[in-house]
Design a protein that fits this description.
Layout lengths: L5 H4 L13 H12 L10 E7 L5 E13 L2 E10 L1 H35 L6 H15 L4 H13 L9 H4 L7 H8 L1 H9 L8 H7 L20 H16 L10 H10 L7 H13 L13
Antiparallel strand pairs: 1-2, 2-3
Helix pairs in contact: 4-5, 4-10, 4-12, 5-9, 8-9, 9-10, 10-11
């Protein structure tokens, strides 16, 4: 494995095959043993680097055993070259990265298409995604869940593509029939997204982001824990962004009014923990909603 003959290594110090930047760790293990303890690598299957005769570093897997006899302390080390496995892992990581980049591009494309149909709310999905991720981080959610919130934020309003554009951009108050058409976007978004094999509940977030804790939301009148946590986060992020931004039928109400809305609805319309995290973000930590970006070709 290392390119040496038995004669070349018999009786030599083991540091012969240990790269210089790994020798301190090896020496630390010996100091523990000299103090009467057990080498810190004993009983573990550890990955490390070893050195060949030509000076090439190779990744290896090391299993170390230690025992004491009247003649002293002895070690047996089993070393396996894992270069091929590492190459395969790198290839897999590369493929995964390509898939993630493709997914990001697809999500971005869908977002742009949605914004082109509703130019008055350009950037809404992106800003909601940013707010939702920030709230999720404040709640201590995992990186994977935050990634799912990012994707769901970009796609939560995809169902609006089936709503006539003249209704989306109507400058006046919606009629009851028009409002009912707007409300169908949650179900339509779910219908569009449910067939896509996301690793997160993106379709359900689109379906539930207008549900409210007291059952007053739509389309299913869900209550409390019947609503996904991600959808409860999205509901708060959506309200904060929408109220603070301009709309065809009104000027932006500002972040102060938006925060007052979720504060007044804490525990009734909105999840109390989500609201608390959101208020802390804006009022204590100074979070600022990202600037509106125009759609470009």
């Amino acid at each position: 494995m290392f390119g040496y003959s038995e004669k070349e290594v018999f009786g030599k110090n083991i540091s012969l095959i240990i790269p210089e930047n790994h020798r301190q760790d090896y020496a630390e293990g010996l100091r523990i043993v000299a103090a009467g303890g057990e080498h810190h690598l004993v009983g573990k299957m550890s990955e490390t680097i070893r050195l060949t005769k030509t000076g090439k570093e190779i990744p290896v897997e090391l299993a170390l055993s230690q025992w004491r006899t009247e003649k002293g302390i002895f070690f047996t080390g089993v070393i396996r070259d894992i270069s091929e496995r590492k190459r395969n892992e790198e290839k897999t990581a590369s493929y995964v990265k390509q898939l993630e980049e493709s997914l990001t591009s697809i999500v971005e494309a869908i977002t742009v298409i949605s914004e082109m149909r509703d130019p008055y709310t350009v950037g809404h999905e992106r800003r909601v995604a940013d707010i939702a991720v920030a709230i999720g981080a404040e709640l201590g959610l995992s990186e994977n869940t935050l990634e799912g919130l990012h994707v769901a934020g970009h796609l939560h309003d995809v169902g609006k593509m089936i709503v006539p554009s003249e209704i989306l951009s109507k400058p006046g108050k919606l009629s009851p029939i028009e409002y009912q058409l707007i409300k169908t976007h949650a179900q339509s978004g779910y219908d569009v997204l449910k067939g896509i094999k996301f690793p997160w509940p993106v379709a359900l977030v689109a379906l539930q982001h207008h549900e409210r804790m007291d059952g007053s939301g739509y389309p299913q009148n869900l209550k409390n824990d019947e609503i996904l946590l991600e959808a409860r986060i999205m509901a708060v992020a959506d309200v904060v962004e929408a109220m603070s931004s301009h709309r065809p039928y009104r000027a932006g109400l500002g972040i102060t009014a938006a925060l007052e809305e979720i504060e007044n609805g804490r525990g009734t319309r909105y999840d109390p923990n989500v609201v608390t995290a959101c208020l802390r973000l804006f009022r204590v930590k100074g979070f600022v909603i990202p600037e509106k970006k125009e759609v470009t070709e």
